[in-house]
């Protein structure tokens, strides 16, 4: 195990290595972007820490002592290995695909139809899209960003509201077959559609104060198929209004119930510096979301 307390300051070692490599204090200062006085001070500090003379000075000329040459050789090997490791990591980061997770319904209905413009603007960015209802962890080397639906309550992450997206219950007019009799309680007797691994219907109805169990049956589907099934009259579905706005306007779907909680779609990322592909995706996504009618642009922070 390395005893870091015995290690001279890294800045001093770097300054000395630069002098040894470039042959002069002035050249080393230029390479490191500091003054030559700062380089001289670092070398004196290193000699004091090691209690060894590392350079011999004669006027403006400087030469390495035997101890200096030995240290320069070791530092050259060490810094070269560090540089190789750093380069390998940064190259891997550049080549790693951008990984984004969101729900299948949002991906198929809103995101994927717009990806052509992202590809045209950023042809060199490889993108992996994970359509899953699960909240995937955003970790270094893993998922870079998530597009999540909710109230913006994800502590420890940066989040930007992309668009308002209240929840609604929708159904085909053919399924309802006229005005709903019996009020909201009557909905529990109709068939429902639910995304796999989710129980949106029961949760939504309980928030509306409806405690009756669903008796009309529930069909569990991948999120991208829920809307197709709803349009086909196979059941009621809890969806975000922004994804079915066109269906509501055309009469393909009818709003049966509306949630009053302020919800939206959010872009969620880890705090800190973003790698270039992620920055490009975030800029593009916010620009696309700004085109959604009724969007609260102030929430974007742009």
From TrEMBL:
<keyword id="KW-0238">DNA-binding</keyword>
<dbReference type="InterPro" id="IPR005119">
    <property type="entry name" value="LysR_subst-bd"/>
</dbReference>
<dbReference type="InterPro" id="IPR036390">
    <property type="entry name" value="WH_DNA-bd_sf"/>
</dbReference>
<keyword id="KW-0804">Transcription</keyword>
<dbReference type="Pfam" id="PF03466">
    <property type="entry name" value="LysR_substrate"/>
</dbReference>
<comment type="similarity">
    <text>Belongs to the LysR transcriptional regulatory family.</text>
</comment>
<keyword id="KW-0805">Transcription regulation</keyword>
<protein>
    <submittedName>
        <fullName>LysR family transcriptional regulator</fullName>
    </submittedName>
</protein>
<dbReference type="Pfam" id="PF00126">
    <property type="entry name" value="HTH_1"/>
</dbReference>
<feature type="domain" description="HTH lysR-type">
    <location>
        <begin position="8"/>
        <end position="65"/>
    </location>
</feature>
<dbReference type="InterPro" id="IPR000847">
    <property type="entry name" value="LysR_HTH_N"/>
</dbReference>
<dbReference type="InterPro" id="IPR058163">
    <property type="entry name" value="LysR-type_TF_proteobact-type"/>
</dbReference>
<dbReference type="InterPro" id="IPR036388">
    <property type="entry name" value="WH-like_DNA-bd_sf"/>
</dbReference>
């Amino acid at each position: 195990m390395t005893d870091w307390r015995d290690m001279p300051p890294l800045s001093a070692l770097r300054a000395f290595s630069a002098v040894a490599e470039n042959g002069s204090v002035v050249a080393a200062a230029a390479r490191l972007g500091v003054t030559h006085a700062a380089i001289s001070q670092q070398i004196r500090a290193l000699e004091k820490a090691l209690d060894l003379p590392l350079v011999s000075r004669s006027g403006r000329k400087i030469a390495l002592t035997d101890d200096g040459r030995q240290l320069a050789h070791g530092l050259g090997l060490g810094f070269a290995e560090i540089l190789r490791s750093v380069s390998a990591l940064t190259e891997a980061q550049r080549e790693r695909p951008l990984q984004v997770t969101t729900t299948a319904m949002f991906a198929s209905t809103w995101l994927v139809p717009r990806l052509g413009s992202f590809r045209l603007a950023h042809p060199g960015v490889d993108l992996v899209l994970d359509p899953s209802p699960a909240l995937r962890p955003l970790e270094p080397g893993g998922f870079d960003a998530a597009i999540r639906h909710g109230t913006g309550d994800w502590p420890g992450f940066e989040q930007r509201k992309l668009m308002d997206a209240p929840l609604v219950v929708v159904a085909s007019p053919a399924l309802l077959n006229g005005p709903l009799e019996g009020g909201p309680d009557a909905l529990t007797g109709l068939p429902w559609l639910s995304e796999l691994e989710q129980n949106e219907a029961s949760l939504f109805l309980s928030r509306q104060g409806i405690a009756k169990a669903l008796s009309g049956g529930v069909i569990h589907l991948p999120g991208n198929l829920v809307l197709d099934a709803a349009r086909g009259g196979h059941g009621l579905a809890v969806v975000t209004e922004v994804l079915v706005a066109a269906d509501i306007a055309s009469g393909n779907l009818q709003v049966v119930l509306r949630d009053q909680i302020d919800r939206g779609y959010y872009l969620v990322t880890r705090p800190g510096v973003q790698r270039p592909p992620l920055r490009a995706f975030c800029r593009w996504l916010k620009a696309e979301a700004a085109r959604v009618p009724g969007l609260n642009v102030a929430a974007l922070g742009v």
